[in-house]
Design brief:
CATH architecture of one domain: Alpha Horseshoe
Number of helices: 16
Order of helices and strands: HHHHHHHHHHHHHHHH
Shape: globular
Structural class: mainly alpha
CATH class of one domain: Mainly Alpha
Distance between the termini: 36 Å
Largest sheet: none
CATH topology of one domain: Serine Threonine Protein Phosphatase 5, Tetratricopeptide repeat
Length: 318
């Protein structure tokens, strides 16, 4: 998988720069020269009743909006949520229409996605519907907003049971991520459990949830090398802010072998997204096209600066 991503990254850079690279430019680091992939089983002991996580990362269930849309239509676990995450402005109407149709047909994950697409009472209604259909993360969110303590406790326990089943039996990465979030934000009378959260984030990362890899990197402060490996994994899976950060590491060259080719490809992935904070990657790539770290391209740099300003402006309005 890493080799295919290297090929895509190189192709993206060639398309970006529209010119040939200097023969003396440094080649990207090979997989063996990069930090080792996150060692899942070394992070923490598995919670009681949970199976040991695999050390080998598993492939994502869908890589782009079209594949995720098709998987969602077939009701494959976690693909509706991934579809929502992959949707850009031109895709949103289609994503909303599909989620509405599947929710009406009784698909719990689609109802949860619909709750993310809608605002106010309509979004809350979709969230409640998802919980009624058995979607664990929805039940936990509904529980957090329920004033009746006994009812809230019942909904929370129901949500956890559903997430644990889907994480363990169906290997649904979003269910594992849901358990990690629940461990960090338990009900008011319980203590947060960071160790349990790390374990579930590890498993979710192995199963292909890019946000889990990124959150695990944010929690990791003891090992810079492992932190970079997690950011690299998150970027490979499509997490835009992880791409912005790993691009900075490749440009700096302290914790990984310096490679402006990898830095440019990572920055471009972040800049092309609509994620909050992605404008910084646009600025970084524009600067590299002007200061000699990449072949100079003033026109492209101007486009990137404009893109960065547009992203920053849209995020301020939210």
């Amino acid at each position: 998988m890493r080799r295919s991503i290297q090929t895509v990254a190189a192709a993206a850079l060639l398309l970006l720069l529209s010119c040939s690279q200097d023969k003396g430019e440094e080649k990207p680091a090979t997989p063996a020269e990069k930090p080792a992939a996150p060692a899942v089983t070394g992070e923490s002991a598995a919670p009681a009743g949970e199976p040991a996580a695999s050390e080998e990362p598993k492939s994502t269930q869908c890589a782009d909006f079209a594949a995720c849309r098709d998987g969602c239509a077939e009701r494959k676990a976690s693909t509706c949520l991934r579809m929502q995450g992959r949707a850009r402005k031109p895709d949103r109407a289609e994503a909303e229409k599909l989620a509405a149709r599947l929710c009406d047909a009784g698909h719990p994950e689609a109802c949860h996605v619909q709750s993310l697409q809608l605002e106010g009472k309509r979004g809350q209604k979709a969230l409640t519907r998802a919980c009624e259909l058995g979607y664990g993360q929805s039940c936990i969110q509904v529980a957090a907003k329920t004033k009746d303590r006994a009812k809230a406790d019942l909904l929370h326990r129901r949500g956890l049971a559903s997430l644990e089943k889907n994480c363990r039996q169906q290997e649904d990465p979003y269910a594992c991520t849901g358990l990690a979030k629940a461990a960090l934000a338990p009900p008011a009378d319980e203590q947060a459990d960071p160790a349990r959260a790390r374990w579930h984030y590890n498993k979710a990362c192995d199963l292909g949830d890019e946000d889990a890899c990124y959150e695990l990197a944010r929690m990791n402060v003891e090992s810079p090398a492992r932190n970079v490996a997690l950011l690299d994994r998150a970027c490979e899976l499509g997490q835009p802010i992880a791409c912005a950060r790993i691009g900075d590491h490749y440009a700096e060259g302290k914790l990984v072998r310096k490679s402006m080719e990898r830095a440019a490809a990572s920055w471009k992935l972040a800049c092309d997204s609509e994620a909050e904070g992605a404008h910084a990657a646009c600025d970084s790539l524009a600067a590299a096209l002007l200061d000699g770290r990449l072949p100079r391209d003033e026109a492209r740099a101007a486009e990137l600066k404009k893109r960065g300003q547009e992203l920053a402006g849209s995020q301020k309005q939210k």
